[in-house]
Amino acid sequence: MSHELRTPLNSIIGFSDLLVDQTFGEISPPQYRECAVDINDAGKHLLQLINDLLDLARIERGQLSLNEQRLDVGQMLNACVKLARERAIGSGVQVRLNCPADFPPLFGDELRIKQAVVNLLSNAVKFSDKGLEVTVSAAATDAGGICLSVTDQGIGIAQKDLAVALSEFGQVDGSLTRRHEGTGLGPSLSRKLVELHQGRLELDSQVGVGTTARLLFPKTRTLDAPSPRFRPFVSSTPA
Questions:
Q1: Which residues have C-beta within 8 Å of that of residue 212, sequence separation ≥ 6?
Q2: Which H or E run contains 3?
Q3: Is the full-model pTM beyond 0.90?
Q4: Angle between helices 31-60 and 2-21 in degrees, nearest 10
Q5: Is there a contact between 114 and 76 (Cβ–Cβ < 8 Å)?
Q6: What element of type H or E holds 99?
Q7: 114-158 pLDDT, tens digit each
Q8: CA distance 85 to 73
Q9: What are the start-end ranges of the E strands in the chain?
Q10: pLDDT by residue (tens digit) across 102-114?
């Protein structure tokens, strides 16, 4: 099923990339290129939805295995910020990264943890207005574990709707949230991915103030010696 869905979509995305980039020459009239951009965006959106659905299905069936290793948290979060940079630039949102230089390594699956962080980061950027700020942070918990958090100054979620926001396909009703596209899979998938690491996802939010999503990993996944490779990365401004 995965192959049958992804193969034609990859063709659509690949050929529309050629049209958008005008690889074989300028497209005239320019409206055709605008159509190609819409096709490309829709294809990428659908492919992401399919990937998320397949990941959820694998988790539900217990078929998603983790490739666990020692992770440099600073470098990993820096990579997440870079992945969200294009959307942040388009939205006029500033993304900052706060991670101490001597932050301890995390034992886990880099791909899956980055996927969880990027899902939350993309949501934060999507629901933030131009000129606002999103912050990605790493901190130690009181219990000796690791907390990776994403904080925004966006529209926020009412307390009564937090459980809905974390459910599969959960979308909070309201004119503010309905202005934004989405399936509601991102937070749910992030929750399941951190649970595979024996952790949990917490969500704090206030309407009109913003939202903080925390990926909490247990002490057993905190390694002793800090990684020497990462240098302090204080902020990233998409300008």
A1: 149, 150, 151, 152, 203, 204, 205
A2: helix 2-21
A3: no
A4: 150
A5: yes
A6: none
A7: 999 999 999 899 889 899 999 999 999 999 999 999 999 988 888
A8: 18
A9: 68-71, 94-98, 106-109, 133-140, 146-152, 200-206, 210-217
A10: 999 999 999 999 9
